[in-house]
Amino acid sequence: MQELEFFMDVSPNWWLKARDDETFLKKYVLEKFQRDYYPRVIMQNREKIDLDESNHPIKGIILQDLKLGNFQYEFLPEDENLKESYLIKNGKIHFNPIRKKINSRLLLKIKI
Length: 112
Prior knowledge:
This protein is 27% helix and 44% strand. It is α+β, with helices and mostly antiparallel strands. The chain has one domain. The strands form 3 sheets. A 3-stranded antiparallel beta sheet has the order 1-7-4, with helices on one face. β2 and β3 form a beta hairpin.
């Protein structure tokens, strides 16, 4: 049995509403999954499968599991990474911090 992980972008306000209402959460995931999930290309048995372009049976299995509510979920809050970089110019060191913001996401785990 293989566990696939998918992510969906959600807002923190949405999570505050959905965390107390599992029916609402599962209905939302089922409705929005087709348009808003990633990765869209997965690996299964060393085979690369594009879920958007192929009519591979695995896509139907994933959608069926979502419909039945056979998945686990976890909310991943917004995160901000700070990466230090520097530049040496005319014998002086200039530090350039780079901030990268990651939106809050919903992690979906589906066993197939």
